[in-house]
């Protein structure tokens, strides 16, 4: 199937899970990454069971914050 | 890493940060990257959802909108920036701890003294490296 990851079209196997995609994309510190699929944020508790579908658009957003 | 920003964009960023005192101001940067050199072409001004003078957090939804805008303009996300109203232009312990994206440039504008100080850093596994930030113009490009 074809999905879009961070704006780039990519081919992945059907039934790909979100954890498999995170591993395949070498996402650093995934526990601090917010994932959106088709503009919907995935709740942390749903990350492990989320399955990607043909045409999905996935974004990985790093938590960005700090203090002085 | 050489990272360049036009003085007009820098002035805009510094003015925005001053307008938001006493809170920390923050946002994203986007541009191009070639041969290990970055050129900032757009600065995004995002809400500091902490609304604090000693802390900032970007709103993920605004972050996503900004990234989509970057893509539509053919720009690459290059990192983020934030201001330090009362401390130097260097990553704090918390900045280092919360720097999860080693591909990002982390830019910090200090407003603690009369003259603003702006620096950019690479942060990876808790190690901080200062980047070669150059504020440029068409006439003074180096």
From TrEMBL, chain A:
Pfam families: ThiS. Signal peptide: none annotated. InterPro entries: Beta-grasp_dom_sf (IPR012675), Mopterin_synth/thiamin_S_b (IPR016155), Thi_S (IPR010035), ThiS/MoaD-like (IPR003749). This is Sulfur carrier protein. It comes from Pseudobutyrivibrio xylanivorans. The lineage of its organism: Bacteria, Bacillati, Bacillota, Clostridia, Lachnospirales.
TrEMBL record, chain B:
GO terms for cellular component: proteasome complex. GO terms for molecular function: metalloexopeptidase activity; zinc ion binding. It comes from the Bacteria. Gene3D superfamilies: Cytidine Deaminase, domain 2 (3.40.140.10). Signal peptide: none annotated. SUPFAM superfamilies: JAB1/MPN domain (SSF102712). The keyword Cytoplasm does not apply. Residues 2-137 form the MPN domain. GO terms for biological process: proteolysis. Keywords: Hydrolase, Metal-binding, Metalloprotease, Protease, Proteasome, Zinc. Pfam families: Prok-JAB. This is Proteasome lid subunit RPN8/RPN11, contains Jab1/MPN metalloenzyme (JAMM) motif. It comes from Pseudobutyrivibrio xylanivorans.
